[in-house]
Amino acid sequence: ITSYMGIEGVAIMAGEAEQPETSIPRAMRTMVLRLILFYVVAIAVMLMMTPWRELAEGGGGLTGSPFVRAFTAIGIPYAAGAMNVVVISAAISSANSNLYSTTRMLLSLARSGFAPAGLAAVGGNGVPFRALAVASTGVCAAILLALYAPAQAFLALYGTALILILAFTTRF
Fold first, then answer.
1. What is d(CA 93, CA 8) in angstroms, rounded to the nearest whole number?
2. Most buried residue among 20, 86, 121, 149 by CB atoms closer than 10 A?
3. Which of 18, 46, 14 lies closest to 28 in space, CA to CA?
4. Packing angle between helix 66-73 and helix 42-49, nearest 10 degrees?
C-alpha cells in the first residue's frame, strides 16, 4: 500500500505547475530514467563487481555498505565518507520534499474545511507559515527520535505514516 503513496507529490506539483499537461508527463518520464540510471544500473554494476559471498560476510549479515566495498575495491579513497555525503544529502532532500508536501497538504485541507482554518493563512509572499510550523514539528520529532532512539526510529516513523495514510484515505 505505502509503495504508491508518493504519488501525492505529483498531485501537488500538478496543482502548482503553470502548464501541468506538459510539465508533469515530462517530469515523470525523466524521473523514470533517473531511477533506472541511478538505482538499477548502479546496483547492477556494484553486484557485478562484488561476489555474493563477500556481500554477506559475518554470519549472513551485512558488515558494511556494498557500495563502499565496491568503491574500495576499485581504489577510490574515502569511499565511506563519499557514500555518507550521498546518503545524508538524499535524506535532507527527502525531508525537504516531505516538508513541502505536508505543508501544502495542510494548507489545502484547511482551505477545504478538513483541517483547522488557521492553517489556511498565508503570509504576504504566499507562504503558509502556520502550516509550515505544524509540518516542521513532525520533522523535528523525527530528528529527535532518530537521535535518541535510533533502533526504533524507522519502525516508529513508518508505522505512524502508515496509520495516518490509512486513516485519511479511508475517511473520505
1. 16
2. 20
3. 14
4. 60
Please return the burial class of 131, using the count of CB atoms within 10 Å of its CB with bins 0-12, 13-18 and 19+: buried
Cell numbers placing 117: 482554518
With beta carbons less than 8 A apart as the criterion, state whether 106 and 134 touch. yes
Query: Which secondary structure element, helix H or strand E, spans residue 10, and what is its range?
Result: helix 8-16
Mean pLDDT across 28-40:
81
Q: What is the pTM of this model?
A: 0.61
| pLDDT of 1 | 46
Tens-digit pLDDT profile for residues 5-22: 556 666 666 777 788 888
Long-range contact pairs involving 159-164 (C-beta distance under 8 Å, separation at least 24): 161/2, 161/5, 162/1, 162/2
d(CA 35, CA 61): 26
Return the closest-CA partner of residue 67 out of 53, 57, 82, 18.
82
